Amino acid sequence: MSNQALLILADKNYIEHAKTVIGAIYSFGRWKDDIVVLTVGWNSEDCHEFNLRGIFTLPVMTQIPAGHFNWNKAAMFNPMLKHWEKVITLDCDTLVLDDINPIIDMVERKDTLYACRSHVPKRFEFDLRKLRRTPCHELQCLLDELDDNKVLNSGVMAYNTDVIGKKVSERKIVELAHRFRNYYKCRDEAVLNLIFPDFVELPQEYNVQTAKMINKIYEGKILHFLSKGWKPWQSWETHEREGLELSEELKENRKRIASKWKWCRKQFDYIFLHEEFKDCGFI
User: Does residue 134 fall inside a structural domain?
Assistant: First the structure.
């Protein structure tokens, strides 16, 4: 085992996406340390294909609050991850296009989270209209500490695992999810911003959110497509449906990114990081 790991979360519907992300991590991202997949609803056969390549698979045991919110990302702060010293987390709707090892070198503090800035201000993370109608003093105090111009996006994060159990934990995230569940707008960033108003910003090139930064895709080391059931070209199709004109240069770049996405999926089949690992669950 290495002392640092790259972590992704995938339910059964996102197994193929996980393979693509890992193919990109290994090929373009130049990542040679441990890779861990937090699995939701996978069976032993699903895990075995990853374990054969030396990739850890850890089933998520998080107790999800009632409702339509997805809080599985709380498992990214499970105590078992303290087996590693530093962790990078990636969403399954990301595509790595360049070396990501420098992110690990940026993680110097042990008391907070490292993440890129979101282009969605805090007012879109919470139902502030409902908060005015049904006041919650505790939540309001927490929101008052947030800078509306500095909101983290959880698509790409990094941290020293010393923060687990001190400032954040899987249990704390789930408890906050329960406590303020009537005020969220379906975003895990809501809870993480409450816990980490002091997060350290990573360079934006490590989380180029294509739906909001379409003209910045050339500068991205990690693209984040911000859509359900995504394909790299779908974010741009959304812009076309909304009547936003794409330049010929952007259209060509869309084809290039789509081609890389398909190529990365094929690279997964050639990955062999370590000896085979058995599927292991959270303690």
Answer: yes
Q: Tell me: the pLDDT tens digits for 31-49?
A: 999 999 999 889 999 999 9
Number of domains in the chain: 1
Distance (Å, whole) CA 3 – CA 137 = 41
Amino acid identity of residue 48, one-letter, is H
CATH of the domain at 58: 3.90.550.10
Distance CA(273)–CA(248), nearest Å, equals 39
- Please identify which residue in the block is written with the tokens 């969220």: 184
Q: Say yes or no to pLDDT of 156 above 50.
A: yes
Q: Which domain covers residue 84, as residue numbers?
A: 4-270
SS3 state at 123: helix
Sign of CA dihedral 122, 123, 125, 129: positive
* Token output for 244: 């936003």
Does the pTM exceed 0.70? Answer: yes
Query: 3-state class of 190 per DSSP?
Result: helix
User: Which is nearest to 79 in space by CA: 197, 10, 199, 166?
Assistant: 166
In a domain, residue 186? The reply is: yes
Please name which of 253, 251, 252, 242 lies closest in space to residue 212, comparing C-alpha atoms: 242
Residue 82 lies in a domain: yes
Question: Does residue 277 lie in a domain region?
Answer: no
